Amino acid sequence: MKWLAVLALVLPVALAASQGIDISHWQGTVDFNAAKANGVKFVCIKATEGTDYKDPEFSFHYIGATNAGLIRRAYHFARPDVSSGAAQATYFTANGGGWSADGITLPGALDIEYNPYGTTCYGLSQSAMTAWIKDFSNTYLSKTGRYPVIYTTTDWWKTCTVELSKCSMRLFYY
User: Which residues of the chain have pLDDT under 50?
Assistant: First the structure.
């Protein structure tokens, strides 16, 4: 089965066709009206991590972005070392990561990158990591009717996954 992977690459803002910001509790209070006035069009907001963490600022950030008239998307920080892709996609969609056809909510994003807590690829082989991502993506699709965006770096993708040629790719430049 062909599956969709949407990669977001971090490049200078000058190259971006549409400007967005990626936020979590680490940014604290965000002035979304000022962000919009400075050209920000959309916001990626951390909702969850693994199957037991909810970003404590998610609701505040989500409502703030909405009130400022920004397009928003929730993202899930992947922890392939702690549970299945299906379990994490289910947790994500149950805690703010869903999608709706309201014109301001983008499908959720899977933030998967080098492991800040341990081994580079979370201790998984390339084929096991690819299977984990497919499990997350297919579960997200079944719950929302949309594929998630996969937010990562090309270096991590090349190092930790296989079957790149079988993916339908979309590159976003932030």
Answer: 1-16, 165, 168-174
What is the span of the domain harbouring residue 104? 3-167
113 in catalytic set? yes
Q: Which one is catalytic: 81, 113, 135, 163? A: 113
Render pLDDT for 40-91 as a digit per residue (tens, 0 to 9).
999 999 999 999 999 999 999 999 999 999 999 999 999 999 999 999 999 9
**Active-site residue, 111 included:** yes
Nearest to 75 by CA among 6, 123, 13, 11: 6
HEC-encoded secondary structure of 91-128: HHHHCCCCCCCCCCECCCEEECCCCCCCCCCCCCCHHH
Q: Which residues, listed in sequence order, are joined to residue 173 by a DSSP beta bridge?
A: 9
Q: Would 174 be classed as within a structural domain? A: no
Is 163 a known active-site residue? no
Read off the CATH number of the domain in which 109 is found: 3.20.20.80
Structurally, how many domains does the chain consist of?
Answer: 1
The verdict on residue 173 lying in a domain is: no
